[in-house]
Specification:
Blueprint: H1 2-14, E1 23-26, E2 32-35, E3 39-40, E4 44-51, E5 59-65, E6 89-92, E7 113-119, E8 122-123, E9 126-127, E10 133-139, E11 151-157
Parallel strand pairs: 3-11
Antiparallel strand pairs: 1-2, 2-4, 4-7, 5-6, 5-10, 8-9, 10-11
Length: about 160
């Protein structure tokens, strides 16, 4: 019995610990996004994983100021990116219109994606230490006004 207690204490000290916990947010349609942590002390990059997205609906993944309820996330870091790559915003769509070829990123099977998003203290003139900012997902411009795909993970920058 004493050996079990000693072993349990030893394992508790050897077990890895983390000051930050992974964060997942799920939308009303069952799609979800996850990041390793949501609290930061400086500008950084975060790996965002998504799953269970409807592959027939394109989305924008971005770091944005949290909008008023019912509004699209805006303003966002990034913006129009003619190379189709970046670290502040992404267009994810498996069936973009012809002009979107090479600009959008196709979903992996199961409506999945993994992209790296830049987290910054400021988005334009907005200071994310003073206003709420978040990793966001929303419907792309082909489904403008459809708020059913909105997902937010609030970000804290100290």
């Amino acid at each position: 019995m004493a050996l079990r207690i000693l072993l349990a204490i030893l394992l508790a000290f050897l077990a890895p610990t983390s000051a930050h916990a992974a964060v997942t947010a799920t939308g009303s349609n069952g799609a979800s996004i996850s990041i390793a942590q949501s609290k930061f002390t400086k500008d950084t990059k975060v790996k965002v994983s998504g799953r269970n997205f409807d592959e027939t609906v394109g989305i924008y993944l971005a770091y944005c100021v949290v909008p008023k309820k019912g509004a699209a996330p805006s303003p966002c870091g990034g913006g129009v990116n003619k190379s189709g790559t970046g670290e502040a915003s992404y267009w994810i769509s498996s069936n973009p219109p012809p002009y979107g070829d090479g600009l959008s990123i196709a979903y992996a099977p199961g409506g999945r994606f993994t992209e790296v998003v830049a987290i910054t203290r400021k988005i334009g003139k907005f200071d994310c230490r003073k206003v709420k900012c978040a990793i966001t997902v929303r419907s792309d411009h082909l489904h403008e006004g459809d708020r059913s795909h909105d997902i937010f993970i609030p970000i804290s920058i100290k």
